[in-house]
Amino acid sequence: MKQYEIESKLHDVIKLLPPHKLKIALDFLEDLTINDEDETKLLLKEPGFLEDYKQAKKDIQTGNTVNWKDIKRNV
Prior knowledge:
Elements: H1 3-16, H2 19-32, H3 36-45, H4 49-62, H5 68-71
C-alpha cells in the first residue's frame, strides 16, 4: 500500500471515530513518534522506577521470582 493510500484510509477512519476513541488513536499515534531513547528518558523520570528496576534485577539474580504458569489466566 502506498503512502497516499494509507493516509487517505487513515483520514476516512478518523472521520468515523467517536471523540473518546479519537483521543485513544491520537495517543497511540503520538507514542509511535517517540524513539526508544526518549522512552527510556521518560521511564527514568518516573518516581521510583529506577529503584524498582534495580530491585527486580536483584530478584531475578536471586531467583526470587514467580513462574508465569502460576499466575497465567485463561484468556
